[in-house]
Specification:
Length: 302
């Protein structure tokens, strides 16, 4: 599949480019495309966690702490508060059902964890939530990773509730955590993020993320920093290999503004921070992003 990448930014020193970053961006208001840069199809990865939890919006609405609800939506750093929240969703006797790959904390994490364990995987909160929700639905739990499991049918239905009943993924693969992940265009992803704004009062998902951003990523994480700066007006979620989704509340976009960014060379929080700041600051969200290195100037092509 041919991907149409475009230049998003350069770092220049005395007008000589030293770094160039390519990628793609889509802006959607409600279900109307506002603007696109590039045209790529990619797997949703962890960007789709809000919709993976839409399946259990009712089951997880009560009986779980706000911290547990937040960690269900996270790609966490395996900090102590993250592990406590994730483990609270699954009784100790059921922890053997967890099928995340044994992992160390994410690179750059401040966690002191030094052993690879299933709970240390950044998606362990989501997996624990899926297991808890499946128990309430009466679904089998030993095979929840299988693409044929009813959870995944329900997840696709949650996507179709926004993208239309005829939507089908262009491809399906296995994500790093072992669950299926679906490929879609950035415009489709941005439409899904716009809908998070429009539907933010319909369930617990928006509040769980924006009220406890430190549990969604953790110390030093981009999505956590953006949501802290946004003060409830922006939901942000990182996705592996260069994805960032933004769901923005703004009076100029009453049906919700969804923005999804994909960096071609993979996850790069510094470069993504420049891009996110350039998008958010004009909308009144004071996320300043990183400073350019001494002697360099950041030139944006957005």
């Amino acid at each position: 599949m041919e991907q149409q990448w475009v230049k998003l930014l350069e770092l220049r020193r005395q007008d000589i480019p030293e770094v160039a970053v390519h990628g793609a961006v889509a802006w959607v208001h409600g279900d109307s495309v506002v603007r696109t840069l590039g045209n790529v199809t990619t797997f949703g990865r962890s960007l789709m966690k809000p919709y993976q939890m839409k399946v259990f919006a009712r089951e997880l609405a009560s009986g779980y702490s706000p911290e547990a609800q937040a960690i269900a939506l996270s790609s966490h750093n395996a900090e102590p508060s993250h592990l406590a929240a994730a483990q609270s969703m699954l009784p100790g006797a059921e922890s053997g059902l967890l099928q995340t790959p044994p992992s160390l904390p994410m690179p750059g994490s401040v966690s002191k964890v030094t052993t690879a364990e299933r709970w240390h995987h950044p998606c362990s909160g989501k997996h624990a939530a899926i297991l808890s929700g499946c128990k309430q639905r009466g679904w089998s739990r030993d095979n929840y990773l299988d693409a044929s499991h009813p959870y995944h049918d329900a997840y696709r239905d949650a996507l179709r509730a926004v993208l239309g009943p005829s939507w089908t993924p262009s491809s399906t693969a296995v994500d790093g955590c072992g669950l299926p992940t679906h490929a879609m265009t950035l415009k489709e992803m941005a439409t899904l993020f716009a809908a998070l704004v429009a539907h933010r009062t319909q369930d617990w998902i928006w509040a769980a993320m924006v009220d406890r951003p430190e549990l969604i990523g953790g110390q030093g994480r981009l999505d956590t920093g953006i949501m802290k700066a946004g003060q409830g007006r922006v939901l942000a979620k990182e996705g592996a290999d260069g994805l960032l989704g933004l769901a923005i509340v703004h009076p100029d976009y009453p049906r919700g503004l969804g923005v999804v960014i994909k960096i071609a060379h993979g996850w790069d929080p510094r470069m993504m921070g420049y891009i996110a700041s350039h998008i958010l600051m004009p909308l009144g969200i004071a996320y300043k992003g990183p400073e350019a290195p001494s002697g360099q100037v950041c030139i944006m092509y957005l």
